[in-house]
Write a structure and sequence with these properties.
single chain, 58 residues, mainly beta, TATA box binding Protein, subunit D, domain 2, TFIIA_gsu_C, Transcription initiation factor IIA gamma subunit C-terminal domain-containing protein, nucleus, TFIIA_gsu, transcription
Length: 58
């Protein structure tokens, strides 16, 4: 079983960094909108993203 859901968000980019192949974004004053049109407002939203492959893999 898998869960499929989408969301969109809008806010102000506070900080971002790229270190050791990892991106980190901190977004402030964020409005998050889900598939069912439910909206949530949060003060801070943090996204951490990295490559799914190890360094050197194709």
């Amino acid at each position: 079983d898998s869960v499929k859901s989408k969301l969109t968000f809008k806010g102000h980019l506070h900080t971002y960094r790229f270190c050791d192949d990892v991106w980190t974004f901190v977004i402030k004053d964020v409005n998050i909108k889900f598939d069912d049109n439910e909206t949530v407002n949060v003060d801070k939203f943090k996204i951490v993203a990295c490559n799914s492959k190890k360094a050197g893999e194709i």
